[in-house]
């Protein structure tokens, strides 16, 4: 099973997180399938590769709670509903 979750980067006390698609059995800094964005909690900046996130969500990937909140704030799920309605 694939999850969309955070991968910690940066230095001590200055964490930056990559949002990655990764196998559930991998550890936090393990090998990811694809990088789909980043999140900087200190500067409160995010970058999301929306087409890549939508691709993984359509294939059944589950976002973690934090990634779900970040994606919801960026309105990724509205685009997912639009794509689903267009295909039906």
UniProtKB/TrEMBL annotation:
InterPro entries: Ribosomal_bS16, Ribosomal_bS16_CS, Ribosomal_bS16_dom_sf
Location of this chain's protein in the cell: Plastid, Chloroplast
Keyword Chloroplast included in the entry's annotation: yes
Lyase listed as a keyword: no
GO biological process, alphabetically ordered: mitochondrial translation
Primary subcellular site in the record, as a coarse category: plastid
Single annotated GO MF: structural constituent of ribosome
Annotated GO CC locations: chloroplast; mitochondrion; small ribosomal subunit
Record keywords, A-Z: Chloroplast, Plastid, Ribonucleoprotein, Ribosomal protein
One Pfam short name: Ribosomal_S16
Taxonomy, superkingdom: Eukaryota
Family: Belongs to the bacterial ribosomal protein bS16 family.
HAMAP family in the cross-refs: Ribosomal_bS16 (MF_00385)
Protein name according to UniProt: Small ribosomal subunit protein bS16c
Organism: Macleaya microcarpa
């Amino acid at each position: 099973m694939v999850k969309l979750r955070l991968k910690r980067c940066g230095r001590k006390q200055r964490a930056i997180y990559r949002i990655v698609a990764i196998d559930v059995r991998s550890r936090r800094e393990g090998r990811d399938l694809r990088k789909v964005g980043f999140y900087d909690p200190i500067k409160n900046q995010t970058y999301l590769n929306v087409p890549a996130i939508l691709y993984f969500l359509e294939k059944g990937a589950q976002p973690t709670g934090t990634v779900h909140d970040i994606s919801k704030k960026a309105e990724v799920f509205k685009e997912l509903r639009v794509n689903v309605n267009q295909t039906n």
